[in-house]
Amino acid sequence: MGNGKCMSLLTLVGMVMVMLHKVASQDYGDALSKCILFFEGQRSGKLPSNQRMIWRNDSALSDGSDVGMDLSGGYYDAGDNVKFNFPMAFSTTMLAWSVLEFGQYMGSDQQNALDSIRWAADYLLKSTDVPGKVTAAVGNPKADHNCWERPEDMDTPRTSYVVNQTHPGSEVSAETAAALAASSLVFNSADPAYSKALIDRAEEVFDFADKFRGNYKDSVGEGVCPFYCDSSGYLDELVWAAAWLFKVTNEQKYWGFVQDNIAHLPKPAADSFAEFGWDAKNAGINVLVSGWVMNTTTSDPYVPQANKFVCSVLPESPDKSVTYSAGGLLFKPGGSNTQHATALSFLLLVYAQYLKNHSGTISCGTFDATPSRLEQVAKGQVDYILGNNPMGMSYMVGFSQKFPQRIHHRASSLPSVGDHPEHIQCKDGTPYFQSNNPNPNVLTGAIVGGPDMNDQFPDDRSNAPESEPTTYINAPFVGILAYFKAFPKLRTSI
Ligand SMILES: *[C@@H]1O[C@H](CO)[C@@H](O)[C@H](O)[C@H]1NC(C)=O
Ligand SMILES: *[C@@H]1O[C@H](CO)[C@@H](O)[C@H](O)[C@H]1NC(C)=O
Ligand SMILES: *[C@@H]1O[C@H](CO)[C@@H](O)[C@H](O)[C@H]1NC(C)=O
Ligand SMILES: *[C@@H]1O[C@H](CO)[C@@H](O)[C@H](O)[C@H]1NC(C)=O
User: Which Gene3D superfamilies match (predicted)?
Assistant: First the structure.
């Protein structure tokens, strides 16, 4: 029987160790540094001398030459080599919002975050340099996706897709205006001249987006669909941009635009609160605007709708319209699932700060949600992504001991130019794509689409929905990590 006693003692020790492991904090500061560094791996154009992701090299230097513009620079959106301006602009807005809310907690990484924003903002300025035109994408996406090729070798058509007055694109234009406006606020004190240039351009571009209305798929369809078609309409982007412009300029015309249009977002987007991403802005608008209308007479409809967002996301909520895996990761249908976990967690965390400022709590029918509960749920998602999950795997590349080795990313999976200077043709990259070897270049900080609903992750390069990183998965995570770097002690619970 002594044996049994011994076993139970061991079991007890084991359980205590598991519990300690469960509440152990991740190194959020390290994750933050890496989360920002990822953007250097996505850079297009001429790389600067302080480039830290050194296995990358200059690429796509002649982008825009087909339309007589300089469109070099910006970010490749994911594991391909196309520059899709719509999600790129959204990622920029989210990087800027991350710095505006949580930049004070970033320490020495704040400068790196500013650099990541400026890299995009410079490109968005080029994309809107000709009045009445906004670049929607650069690079023929079908030709690009047909190849497994390094950005440094690209020889597929670098077609520029540009919307204009007769062929408009209000979603891409308005999101660009939002990104420029939010970035302007970030550089307000660090670089006033740059900040002024950004806000002037943001106002011009918003005006164009509003006056010449249309969906960009009807203007430059083959350049953006089926990859980034806008299914929620463009009015949410217009309201979102107007809200950012009001926050920056305090001009009544922008507030009037928000007020006049918030009730007219088309369905189903108008009824969908558990959604926030490059296509759907409703929840983001309501949280953003709540930041200045909470506890005022104009808090309706923004605060009630932001509350609705919260009640549609919290795991214990009767009105929940997302699912959680057994291991605790938030799920929505479609690929690149972690984009939902990071973007919705960002909104929860930001809204929690606004609520705390007003001693507010939320009623979700059967229970009340406190700001600290919102933070707990966000932290649960962060900890899951960083490795507190059934696979024991960090879904951020280069973070902790176990992370994805075969990410769906051309530059990461092909040898670098330094290691293999010879050109690798379109189809000559296929063996590298099919290889079972780990990627030779570590795309540090990249967060992949993540595991399936059963918390399983095969680490398979050909499974793009799970193994591909994107800029809009990482961008909101930058702000969240800064907050938990400063406040790591919050108890995790899902
Ligand atoms: C570009 O590649 C060359 C080797 O071909 C290397 O010497 C150089 O450092 C690279 N540049 C950057 C910015 O990584
Ligand atoms: C407007 O954009 C469309 C679609 O990109 C293009 O075909 C057309 O030539 C452009 N018009 C002008 C005046 O630039
Ligand atoms: C909280 O309120 C103060 C005073 O109005 C304001 O300066 C601060 O920015 C607010 N913080 C947040 C997170 O809203
Ligand atoms: C905001 O309203 C809540 C009740 O809804 C109240 O408890 C809180 O004190 C108010 N905060 C401020 C800053 O007015």
Answer: 1.50.10.10
